[in-house]
Amino acid sequence: MDPQPEATGQPLSSDEIGLIHAWWRAANYLSVGQIYLLDNPLLREPLKMDHVKPRLLGHWGTTPGLNFLYVHLNRVIKARGLNALFIAGPGHGAPGVVANTWLEGTYSEVYPAIGPDEDGLRQLFRQFSFPGGIPSHASPDTPGSIHEGGELGYSLLHAFGAAFDNPDLIVACVVGDGEAETGPLATSWHSNKFLNPATDGAVLPILHLNGYKIASPTVLARISHTELDALFRGYGYLPIFVDGEEPDAMHRAIAAALDDAVDRIHAIQKAARDGGVTTRPLWPMIVLRSLKGWTGPKIVDGQKSEGFWRAHQVPFTMDKPEHLGLLEEWMRSYHPEELFDDGGRLRPEIAALAPRGDRRMSANPHANGGALMRPLRLPDFASYAVPVVHPGESDGEATQVMGTFLRDVVRENAQARNFRVFGPDETASNRLQTIFEATDRSWDAETIADDVHLDPSGRVMEVLSEHCCQGWLEGYLLTGRHGLFSCYEAFIHIVDSMVNQHAKWLKTAKEVPWRRPIASLNYLLTSHVWRQDHNGFSHQDPGFVDHVVNKKADIVRVYFPPDANTLLFVTDHCLRSWDRINVIVAGKQPSPQWLDMNAAIKHCTRGIGIWDWASNDRSGEPDVVMACAGDVPTLETLAAVSLLRVQLPELKVRVVNVVDLMTLQPNSQHPHGLSDSAFDALFTTDKPVIFAYHGYPALIHRLTYKRTNHQNIHVHGFEEEGSTTTPFDMVVRNHLDRFHLMGKVIDHVELPDSAAAYAKQTIDDQLVEHKRYIAAHGIDMPAVRDWRWPSGA
Amino acid sequence: MDPQPEATGQPLSSDEIGLIHAWWRAANYLSVGQIYLLDNPLLREPLKMDHVKPRLLGHWGTTPGLNFLYVHLNRVIKARGLNALFIAGPGHGAPGVVANTWLEGTYSEVYPAIGPDEDGLRQLFRQFSFPGGIPSHASPDTPGSIHEGGELGYSLLHAFGAAFDNPDLIVACVVGDGEAETGPLATSWHSNKFLNPATDGAVLPILHLNGYKIASPTVLARISHTELDALFRGYGYLPIFVDGEEPDAMHRAIAAALDDAVDRIHAIQKAARDGGVTTRPLWPMIVLRSLKGWTGPKIVDGQKSEGFWRAHQVPFTMDKPEHLGLLEEWMRSYHPEELFDDGGRLRPEIAALAPRGDRRMSANPHANGGALMRPLRLPDFASYAVPVVHPGESDGEATQVMGTFLRDVVRENAQARNFRVFGPDETASNRLQTIFEATDRSWDAETIADDVHLDPSGRVMEVLSEHCCQGWLEGYLLTGRHGLFSCYEAFIHIVDSMVNQHAKWLKTAKEVPWRRPIASLNYLLTSHVWRQDHNGFSHQDPGFVDHVVNKKADIVRVYFPPDANTLLFVTDHCLRSWDRINVIVAGKQPSPQWLDMNAAIKHCTRGIGIWDWASNDRSGEPDVVMACAGDVPTLETLAAVSLLRVQLPELKVRVVNVVDLMTLQPNSQHPHGLSDSAFDALFTTDKPVIFAYHGYPALIHRLTYKRTNHQNIHVHGFEEEGSTTTPFDMVVRNHLDRFHLMGKVIDHVELPDSAAAYAKQTIDDQLVEHKRYIAAHGIDMPAVRDWRWPSGA
User: Fold this and answer.
1) B612 and B585 in one domain?
2) Is the pTM higher than 0.90?
3) Which HAMAP family does the record cross-reference, listed alphabetically (chains A, B) (predicted)?
4) What is the distance between the alpha carbons of residues A486 and A492, in angstroms, rounded to a whole number?
5) Mean pLDDT for chain B?
6) Residues 477-506, chain A: which have Cβ within 8 Å of B?
């Protein structure tokens, strides 16, 4: 093992330490001020209850550690001209992060109402955790932030996402020791196997081991040094430990550690970039063991506070008069009079510690990724079209076709290095393997001779962790790049909560005037519920769409392209969009192709429409509307229509296909929603609508309950009946098959009794034959397998 | 560091190895047979295409490794009389697990149609991944399984959950190296800090390092031995490595490793139980590095198969005639004629390797936990009642009261040791701290003098990982015990996908005749959306309920008790239930108490009802129905009603409170659903219903769209407008506050224009005053803070 390294930078002078210590005191002072004070920000008069917020919210515990790291990072940034981002992983770190951005001047630049003076300080203090103000996390309104840190576990993933393809960037990522207990964080240390030192930037993880969560010790703080050291060496890092509580010694130790870490990072990058070293390097990381609530009150009401979990939140409330003195004593211990001038401005010798302009972490343009974003170069999607002479006459594999398009997206943007594809070891399984003609899987761990498509420079990010895929992609997008996450439909639920948080970030960021739009988060959900017949019930869940539609309407889009050409259109559209979460659900199995490219463009542009070629209502009023959303429901609907055409040739059937699910919602609720009149024109106001839907039926009701004809809409979809069985049996079990759809039509249209009875008998016979056939042969009966849309129809 | 240990068991004799090897061959043979064959199970005639399944599904890659471990575990179980469970973490391990359960005889015992003979073998082969048959995971129909392994990442958590409070049990948990990349698995290694060697059983993790996922190498297979060793030592284990491909040597090596591991486990337990050792022990774990698809075809179509990812699934399909010979050669390489007698029965000398009766891992009663489950001893919940003389006159903290009840549940079941409470460091934050009067937090890592409520025997499981809480609890329930998971409402989404999988397990297990019901999975979601005003938008998401209602109706229950006494009733009810997922949403903040215990019992028993004391429709037809579900919506509704009473005394208002959300669904869809006539009796058929709901409004529409009066139901709920603000401003931002509810009433009832205008003006004035007040003071205006239900009303 590599020995504990020696520091290689110059030791700090006492003057330097004094200034750094002054900045730290200032940041700590501002942090306490934000948590406690409404007024009297510089304590120019004795503190009174009137100066204190009536409702104390916020968290002190992690803040002094963040402040300590921030000023020391500034020192190395300035000394070495680094291009660095700061990610605050611990929850509720905003008092510290905001304090530093104010001290750097950035906060007042982007929010002129909060100036770099006493009045600005008053506003700064007041707004924190105050109605109409800012939250206690590094939310989108925080300059320099790409990571809110409200829900814990994703800091390191965001850091790596930011570092990919930014070779000059160093992302300093503070990981809380509470956060470190989460699953996503625990696996994200392995991101170092997916980072290329030649073409990516560096992540410097800093585990902030302050020992406690809300009310308990943390696991990593209560294992031996030997275990802790082994754990991070096992993860592939060289841990550099900084441990203590005496400020002077700690300033020296952290400075040496940062110098050492940056030296190592530069040496690694030089070896890879100039020396052609291709083996995975031993990246440095820092373990900072410091007191929770460091520099705060040691004892409150007779109980230990500094260095204990009681310092986690607000160390004391103001319900006791003696706490006023405690607060004043605490705040004065930072000697604000030495830090701010008479106007409340940070003294210039301290302010000079900040890097200049964009080199301030709070002003780094990577943290406002939209400002750096360049649109993707996209090849003409229409040139990848599958030929469709007659609807349904030939089969195609939608995602395979999309893969060819994506291959060329990779190629077109190879030089810009701003597009990556993410997925949990499923790129090939999801039939996107043509991408591998243009690039490989990113891989910086060991390789053997038999390996294929592994390369440190690969642009396909595969790891068996949906959390990693999602977190990396978020970090990549937030720093101004583009990407696509392809996933098995059922397992995208693994990142439900991450999607929530990203949606919340997007919503809030749109309200921040200086934030620029970022590229959309695009999902391809394939290997979907209807074709997991070989993987069984555990792989069958179409509920992610239900989850995302709870998010704000201007953020969420959901697409169900029924074939390859529509998928091409939708993919192109999504890759051009911004500030959205786009969910595309599409199959990977060979299935009939319905629309040629012209028809696909027209259909997708509207998002919903009547398929005239499949309808026989001659643009008049139909007897029944057969609606469908999703590739399998479309197939079953058309099969039902073709059978009805034979059985009940007089019946006027209209086929409506839905690509853009949001068209179903009223336009008052979603910008893509149809007007009521447009909806009525498609679905009629009184005819039965048999709606075959890809997912849980309730969603269609939820989207359409306000429509005129809602009471006549009958939805067939996934009824949570899954198994290992044949593809057709899957739809039969959930009553989404052609026969049950036909049966529902017959139940809801007016027919002569004899015709209805005959048709029902035919259906029942077919279902009995289906059961018999699969039990005997284990595959679907020829009548189903060989069915094709009649070309003369 | 502890040196690599020496094996302490007796070396295997050649005869023993021969028999073990024969079992392994038999299990591998049965695994291949399940994947490929329809008929000719013992290859009594030359293999023909007709004998092969027309559709080949299944996974071979991990199977030989599982089989290898299974037979060797059987050896130590028999030799030492162990009580052991087997958990197959790698995906698609069913062919192996099922093969071993058939070889042990258990499969034929529970499924007599699949006998221990040639005909049984034929059925066994045929049913695998065949319509109406069994899936490729160790699903509930697999004897001995408590872990399906369809969605990866939870094996080790289930193993620890099973081991808690089962001091005699050893849970052998095979972790796939693909699975090991997931977040939940990566953090679950730390479960060893929460296991008490004195009173819990042991988990023996076996990392199955076969090198590949679907189409890529795995991370842990491609780091150095030094890093791998360090990683597991860092996690607090003593890794024992078994590495190779030559069967004879591997049999000896794994036997020695298992002997060593079991010796160490017993030594640890003895030291803790007899010697009183309380420091966390160094538990052994095994790293088995073996070939993917071991013993399968080495080369297929000129490409490497055994020992490579191409062996992951079906190593070859039957699309080429020469593959028939390849398959026959492969299967005959196991020499079935040496393994099975003329009747197709496993030869007795091989069968004798299996442990007897319940000691077979496939017959271990812990894996059919319901069979061992004893109901909880529950104190009389009514004795914890909060006194309520007049509705709303006094405040109470619902979860605090529940905590007192739970404290006594812990006490009553202390001897049975079958109840635990789980939560991500939030038990106290969620105001359940009274539990700590009865027990402590489980903690087997280091402690310091200042620590409080940490104990290796603690029954409160806290770790900052919702995944760990969920996975441990699932394992605990599946082995016949009881528990409750208390969580911040927003962050329960972290385990959305785990809940899916558990719901699927419950649904399938109910269809397995020999599985007994297990205790329900109970959630308390508190620190909910309406009182996260201090934590901000990231902590505000009530969508978990939307997620769970997609699951089967007979599994899901959702409760919104509006106060402490109703929460007591619901908690008691949930702790008595089985085979369900119960979601309880309740607040932790001081808020008005509405119902005394008698009224609470009546109200909760029905699940929904008119609050006569709050209504003034004198049991006649109301002008408007004010419905509410959730504590904050109930408060705002009653405040609106009390204001309406003053403003519009003539208006007849009916108040309906919903505790059991599922009552809203038609009884055709959910067993708790009201009949249409009962629903109409509450909600009328034509009067406006202003429904104040805790979560996303769409859910109420989704549940009620079939009801007669649906078009008049207007739902107010969370509109995804969150922030750090005051409690009342949170409801105002989402239009769930008393004033907006009043406004909606006025919009939908017939009133003289002047009365309506006056009332509207009053509302507007109040909302303006609200905004002004919070901007000035940062807290809610007195009119809101001091509002109480008028006791004379």
Assistant:
1) no
2) yes
3) Phosphoketolase
4) 9
5) 95
6) 490-491, 493-494, 496-497, 500-501, 504
pLDDT of residue B57: 85
Q: How many domains does chain B have?
A: 3
- Between positions 611 and 650 of B, the ones with CB within 8 A of A are none
Distance CA A205, CA A183 (A): 17
Does residue A421 sit in the same domain as residue A321? no
pLDDT score recorded for residue A9 = 58
Q: Is residue A691, in this structure, part of any structural domain at all?
A: yes
Angle among Cα A153, A159, A162 to the nearest 5 degrees reads 135
**Is B420 within a domain?**
yes
The reply to whether residue B538 touches residue A507, judged by beta carbons under 8 angstroms, is no
Q: Which residue of B lies nearest to A555 if distances are taken between CA atoms?
A: B720
B6 domain residue, yes or no: no
> Are B543 and A500 within 8 A, CB to CB?
yes
The whole-number pLDDT of residue A476 equals 98
pLDDT in tens, A697-728: 999 999 999 999 999 999 999 999 988 999 99
* CB contact residues (below 8 A), chain A span 112-131, against chain B: 126, 129-131
pLDDT recorded at residue B2: 40
List pLDDT tens digits, range B450-494: 999 999 999 999 999 999 999 999 999 999 999 999 999 999 999
CATH number for the domain spanning A452: value is 3.40.50.970
Low-confidence ranges of chain A (pLDDT < 70): 1-9, 792-793
* Residue the block writes with tokens 């408590």: B146
pLDDT digits (tens, 9 = 90+) for B391-404: 998 899 999 999 99
Indicate if A169 and A315 belong to the same structural domain: yes
Q: Are residues B549 and B626 in the same domain?
A: no
Q: CB-based contact (8 Å) between A332 and chain B?
A: no
User: Is there a domain that residue A314 lies in?
Assistant: yes
> What residues of B are in contact with residue A217 (Cβ under 8 Å)?
443, 445, 447-448, 451, 454
Alpha-carbon gap: B662 to the closest alpha carbon of chain A (Å): 14
Residue B284 forms beta bridges with which residues? B238
When mean pLDDT is compared across A167-176, B260-269, B296-305, the lowest value belongs to B296-305
- Residues A299, A197 share a domain: yes
For residue B662, what are the domain limits?
608-786
The Cα–Cα gap between B404 and B406 comes to: 5
Percent of chain B past pLDDT 90, that is, above it, reads: 91
pLDDT range class, residue B215, cuts 50, 70, 90:
confident
Given CA atoms A390, A394, A399, A402 in this order, what sign does their dihedral have? Answer: negative
Residues B352, B272 share a domain: yes
Q: Are strands A454-455 and A460-462 parallel, antiparallel or unpaired?
A: unpaired
| CB pair distance less than 8 Å for B216 and A134 | no
Domain boundary among B591, B626, B655: B591
Asked if residue A468 and residue A513 are part of one domain, the reply reads: yes
| B190: Cβ contacts below 8 Å, ≥ 6 apart | A181, A186, A219, B235, B236, B463, B468
Rounded to a whole number of angstroms, the distance between the first and last alpha carbons of chain B is 73
Could you give the CA distance from residue A133 to residue A425 in angstroms, rounded to a whole number?
43
Give B705 to chain A, closest Cα distance, Å: 7
Domain shared by B635 and B716, yes or no:
yes
Please answer yes or no on whether B216 and A441 come within 8 Å at the CB atom: yes
Domain boundary among A591, A625, A647: A591
For residue B307, give the chain A residue with the closest CA.
Answer: A450
Looking at residue A3, its pLDDT comes to 39
Tell me what percent of chain B is helix, strand and coil, each rounded to the nearest 5: 45, 15, 40
Q: Which of B445, B437, B403 is nearest to B423 (CA)?
A: B403
Percent of chain B beyond pLDDT 70? 99
Whether the pLDDT of residue B10 is over 90: the answer is no
